[in-house]
Write a structure and sequence with these properties.
Distance between the termini: 42 Å
CATH topology of the largest domain: Rossmann fold
Strand content: 5-15%
Strand order of the largest sheet: 2-1-3-4-6-5
Number of helices: 6
Largest sheet: 6 strands, mixed
Helix content: 55-70%
Order of helices and strands: EHEEHHEEEHHH
Radius of gyration: 35 Å
Structural class: alpha/beta
Number of domains: 2
CATH architecture of the largest domain: 3-Layer(aba) Sandwich
Length: about 270
């Protein structure tokens, strides 16, 4: 989820639908910096959602008015008066059902949260049901005067939850990195005695080598380098020991403060 403004994708071919969503989105002054950015996309492009950059999709699951108007014009021009009207209605219902199914599959394939707004009465809804949940897709019935506010409230809560989950994920990653570093630090502290012994031996031999008479200049320079590097490593591990003592004191003081706070509450 974006750290700045979440993106809400509105899938519809009806301009009034997107206006209702944006106009009824809950206004919360405390969340103003994270107010969502709305992007309207024609419902016909819903199959290309996978890989799109958004945090929540709100889709108009009612059939396209333009297609319905074109179908009506075609019927009026049809000279065949023997058309079975019931069959036409069944075909249209089947076509709408297939479009809704394809839209739902496209939304589910992204694994991102989505809200589908169905017409009222909605197909496959019980009379008392206002909504259904199927995986990451929440299906909402288009109740008169209620659905825009319901979609806005549900959308806001979904974005809040995604934001909280994103923060939890970042905290877990930070904690895992800190634990890995702490493990390495403990290992180095546990091994400091062995390393210091090895460095002392290395330093002593380098100094003895430098005292050898008639030593070539190149060898003398190498012995000096070994001695200097050993001294630097010894200083690094001495600093580790100092840090360990400081952390021990801090932990002890924190424990005392926590104990005093607990005693004060009891």
């Amino acid at each position: 989820m974006s750290a700045n403004r979440p993106i809400v994708l509105i899938l519809t071919s009806d301009p009034a639908f997107s206006r209702e969503i944006t106009a009824n989105w809950p206004r919360d002054p405390t969340l103003h910096p994270n107010a969502p950015e709305f992007i309207v996309l024609d419902g016909g492009f819903s199959r290309d959602l996978e890989g799109s950059n958004y945090d929540l999709a709100i889709a108009d699951a009612s059939h396209d008015k333009k297609r319905r108007h074109q179908a009506d014009e075609k019927k009026s021009m049809d000279i065949n008066i023997d058309i079975d009207k019931n069959k036409d209605k069944n075909d249209q219902r089947h076509d709408n059902s297939a479009q809704i199914k394809a839209l739902k599959q496209s939304l589910a394939a992204t694994s991102k949260p989505a809200i589908m707004i169905h017409p009222n009465p909605a197909p496959d809804f019980y009379n008392a049901d206002l909504y259904k949940i199927d995986g990451a897709v929440l299906e909402l019935r288009r109740e008169p005067r209620l659905w825009p506010a319901m979609a806005g409230l549900l959308g806001r809560e979904i974005l809040r939850r995604r934001q909280a989950e994103s923060r939890d994920c970042e905290a877990e990653q930070t904690c895992a990195a800190a634990q890995a570093e702490a493990t390495l630090g403990r290992y180095m502290l546990e091994m400091r005695t062995n390393i210091n012994n090895a460095l002392t031996t290395l330093l002593g031999n380098a100094e003895l080598l430098a005292l050898e008479p008639g030593l070539p200049a190149a060898v003398q320079a190498q012995a000096d380098t070994i001695r200097n590097m050993a001294l630097r490593l010894h200083e690094v591990f001495r600093r580790f020991s100092s840090i360990e003592k400081e952390l021990t004191v801090v932990a002890r003081e924190s424990g005392k403060k926590a104990a005093h706070a607990t005693a004060g509450r009891s």
